Amino acid sequence: MMKTLEQEVLKKIAKKSLFVKLVNTERNESLVEQSISKEFLDLSAVVRIVLKMDKEGMASMALSKGAAEILGMTEEEIYAAALANTLRLFPPKLMNLGRYVEMSIGGKLLFGEDEVTTYILTNQKEVDGAIYFMSPEVVGAIAEALEDDLYILPSSVNEVLLVRASEVRDGVDGLKAMVRDVNETIVAEKEILSYSVYHYDKEHGITIAE
Q: Are 151 and 133 in contact (CB under 8 A)?
């Protein structure tokens, strides 16, 4: 009786605090193996639980596979709850990169006529927001609004960059070089998401661009 009551209380807490974070599978092999997660291409969506969230920031921890037994839920149920909760706690946000930089520096940027229009896909808190790029619904809606296929560049675990496929002049190799340069010069080691470039179209969904 007590165990059932404890599990029900834990379920309620978990359903309010679980969320999903996208990480690189190979770079986080041990974490992925020990945690409740789901693979997506060369990445994994890992279930985490919010420990603290206030104006100063957020603290969280990965949910171990043993937690499923404690909660009295299957791993599939936990993942589904975490995914739904992610939408509630951290709804997606799409921004034009140029405007975002202008807002950050408080000035106006001059763009050439051939400048590629780039968008940032993250969440409202701009933390662990790359998770939304694995959603065909979210990315598909953006592609439909932009009336184009998309290339997706993994900026970090916090966000990804989206560009219209028709605006890419240097091909996938140029995009890969850009991702590699950013990872090696700007992104903190623990926040690197991937060195891959991804592609979205209606027929194939999200794939690794070759």
A: no
Mean pLDDT rounded to a whole number for the chain:
86
Cα distances (Å, whole numbers) of residue 24 to 28, 144, 190: 6, 27, 10
At position 143, the amino acid (one-letter code) is A
What's the rounded Cα separation, in Å, for the pair 69 and 9? 14
This prediction's pTM: 0.85
> Which amino acid, one-letter code, is at 38?
K
Q: Does residue 122 contact residue 159 with C-beta atoms inside 8 Å?
A: yes
Which strand (E) or helix (H) includes residue 59? strand 57-62
pLDDT of residue 111: 41
d(CA 163, CA 151): 5
23 closest CA partner among 156, 187, 205: 156
